[in-house]
Specification:
alpha+beta
Length: about 160
């Protein structure tokens, strides 16, 4: 007897229906109900596994066991932003320009994508900030960014507007 993918699915479905039938429900009397339950279980499993994957849960556990050093994110850049989601950033742009702001969106890969920054301010050489008047968001090409600084909190910003 060949054990294949369909027979495994069939055994899982049979086990599930056996467990439900012992609750007093007659699941075999209605084919629609069987399909609905299978679809519901499939959606729930899919959402659970997607959540585990997107939250880096599995890889975080494997890193703690020293099995891997990888994360489940697409790139090191995306991983850095995901782990510092509560930080303001300073984008160091080509041409010695620096942009300070809150990262609303960031690229998963640096090529052909953009950063969406809100609460934008230009940083001068002496760290004085110049707000961009009338601009709510700015879209910066990832190809223009040479380096990203993550500021741990707004406490790093002095009252006179300079960055510590």
């Amino acid at each position: 007897m060949a054990v294949g993918r369909n027979s495994t699915k069939s055994r899982i479905a049979q086990s599930f229906f056996w467990a439900i039938s012992h609750t007093g429900w007659d699941v075999h009397s209605n084919k629609f109900f069987e399909i609905f339950i299978l679809a519901l279980v499939s959606v729930v499993f899919g959402l659970v596994f997607a959540s585990i994957w997107n939250a880096d849960t599995l890889h975080r556990l494997l890193r703690s066991w020293k099995i891997t050093r990888q994360s489940s994110y697409q790139s090191a850049q995306y991983s850095a932003f995901a782990h510092h989601g509560d930080c303001y950033v300073v984008l160091h742009l080509k041409g010695q320009r620096r942009l300070y702001g809150w990262p609303k969106e960031w690229p998963s890969r640096p090529e052909d994508q953009h950063f969406l920054i809100e609460e934008c301010e230009w940083l001068k050489d002496d760290n004085d900030r110049t707000p961009l008047e009338g601009v709510s968001h700015i879209l910066v090409s990832a190809a223009e960014v040479e380096m990203v600084e993550f500021l741990h909190s707004t406490e790093q910003i002095q009252e006179n507007g300079n960055i510590l």
